Structures are given as structure tokens and as C-alpha cells.
Amino acid sequence: MSKRLHPLSSLLRAAVSLAAAALAAIALAAPPGALPALNIAIEDTSVSGISSGGFMSVQMQVAHSGIVRGAGVVAGGPYYCAQDSVLKATTECSCTGAPTLSCKVGEASTAVPELVAATRAFRAEGRIDDPAQIARQRVVTVVGGKDALVPAAITRQLHGYYDAFGLPAAALKPVTLDAAGHTMPTTAYGGACGTTDEPYIGSCGFEAAHAILEWIYGPDVTPPRTTPTPAGRFVEFDQRAYIPATGFFSHLWGTGLDKTGWVYIPPACAAGERCRLHVVFHGCKQGQSFLPLRRPPDGGLYNGTTFVRNTGYDRWADTNRLVVLFPQAVSIPWKNPNGCWDWWGYTDAHYATRDGIQIRSVRAMIERLASGRHD
Questions:
Q1: Which domain holds residue 360?
Q2: Which of 51, 52, 57, 361 is catalytic?
Q3: Could you confirm whether 51 is annotated as catalytic?
Q4: Catalytic residue at 374?
Q5: Which of 74, 120, 295, 370 could disulfide-link 42, Cβ–Cβ 3.0 to 4.6 Å?
Q6: What φ, ψ does residue 141 adopt, rounded to 5°?
Q7: What pTM did the predictor assign?
Q8: How far apart are CA 112 and CA 161, in angstroms?
Q9: What are the CA-CA distances from residue 54 to residues 19, 126, 359 (Å)?
């Protein structure tokens, strides 16, 4: 005779199955975790960025010149250009102010001698690494001939800043794309190269990521993978874990940092091989949580990973044992509505130094990634 199950047993089994499914769903939707500890040579770190990310990459290269091997600056300008003033930032270091503000950008609008003096003062106060170390770096600058937001004159003044700290002319590679607007140049992804519009990624027949990485790492660079599918993984991580606790609202408000960031990890680096690190700073209106006026090319309401996945860095990372960190800035109403990196002081008075909340946070991310180093 077959044994019949009590109706309650069937209900119990169904409840257990539902609970298991719910737990599985929760596991799949688990929040992003910590960055991995990888075998990274921290002294081989390099940085790059566009627009506010270009200015931020310069801030990182100066504040932490002891670990930065080189920098790629797309539509950026000299260190401490804004001198704590949003008005200077938007009218003398760029032409990004409101239509009622007159743009004053010229060949000497950034007052490079003052910026050099301020840099030396920061060093004397112990707030940045020795700027003399800039002289051993390798730098690429990329400007668009049609860029009306960060005109070429700003980047030429950045060259003057580098010269003041002994960067050899042979270590600086200036690139001008005559037909480009204010955009992150790629080989074939994005809008028309000459336009200045969201998502500020332009199909220019020129890949800035290629030019930057090849120049910084020189003859060590191997040609990129030719397949469209990444060999490695894009990993989302919790940025809040790396924000110093400076006050009650430090993790919630005022830092300009998003809740999560992204890192690309090639298979060789995940397997423990010695790797290098490149940090990429997106520009204004390019962060993952920014709500653009038009739907991004990859769909969705917000930008998402449009910048992270489509600017070409991962192709070069796969073949060159290069981990790529994409920290994410976020909008703050009134103070930073466009989700820019802080290069004028909306977070704190220390923004351009090692003590700045954003620079400290990114340095903490770098140190975590490099904490698995072994010789």
C-alpha cells in the first residue's frame, strides 16, 4: 500500500522550496562587495580622465606623484587651476559657466606661475608628494580642435605647468584632434566626433585609451584583443567602504562619490599574476548614476556603464595584465549637479591634496587592490 503524505507535509515542502528560491534570489541580488586584493605593483599605477576627470587625474598625479607612473589628460588643465573658486573653474579654466557668465579663457588665463607656487606651498606643508617626481612620469594630453568647453589654450597651460616641474619634452605627447569636440575619442563608438553632447564619447577613428596606455607603458604594451567580448570581468564594488569617516554624513552626503564603482580585472590578474593598475576618471554627466536628457546608446534610464564599457580600456587591459579602476562620482544638488569630480572645492578645502576626501578615497581603493602583492 502506498504511503500518503499529510497535506501539511506538502505545504511544508512548498514553503521550504519557496524559501530556498527567495534565498537564492537574495544571493543573486547581493549588494556589491569589497575590491579584491591583487598582485599589483602600486608604483606602476597610472591615471587618466576627461574634462573634470582630466583635472582629477592631474590632481592624483601631483598629490600622489610617488606612485603615479604617468597620466593621460583629455580636455583637462593644470593642477589647482580653479584655486578654490567655481567662478574661476567655469570661466578661466574652462568655458562651462552659465550663459550669463563671460568666458575668460586665454593663453594665460590659468595663471600658471601662481599654480606652481601653490604646488610648492602644498609640498612645504606636507600635503602632497614631492612634485619633483613629476619629471619621471610620462604624459599624454588630448584636445579637440572643436572643443569650446575646455579650449586647447587650457591644455597648453598644463604643458607649461609640467615644464615648471621638469617634465622632459620627450616625455610629453600632445595630441590634437582637429575635428573633435568635447568628447572621449574612440575608434568607432559614440556620437559624431565633432559634436559636444551626451554621452561625450565620440567615434573619432582614434582611441584615446590606446594612445594613453601605449605612451605611458611604452614598448611593454601588447596589441589589444580583437574580439568584442571581454576576456576578463567588469566587477561592481562598494565605494563607501573606502570613504574615510570624517563625520556623520561622510558616507551619505557631501563627498560627491557614488555608492558603487567599477573595476575591470583580466584573467591573468584574477589568477594572481603580477599586474599594473590604471585609474580612469569619467567626466561630468558621464557617471553611472547621472540621468541624461536622452536615453543612453546602450539603453536604460541612467548612464549606467556606458563610459566604463565603451571607452576601450578593457581591450588593452586583457593583453597587458592591466587592472582598470573606474571610480564613480555622483551629482549633489546645487553644489555639483552634473556629477563632476571635485577640482574647485565643492567637497572640502583639501580637494587638490592627499587630504581631499575624493583623493583619499581613491588612494584607499588603490591600496586595497595592491594589497595582494607578492614577489
A1: 35-372
A2: 51
A3: yes
A4: no
A5: 370
A6: -120, 140
A7: 0.90
A8: 6
A9: 49, 24, 14
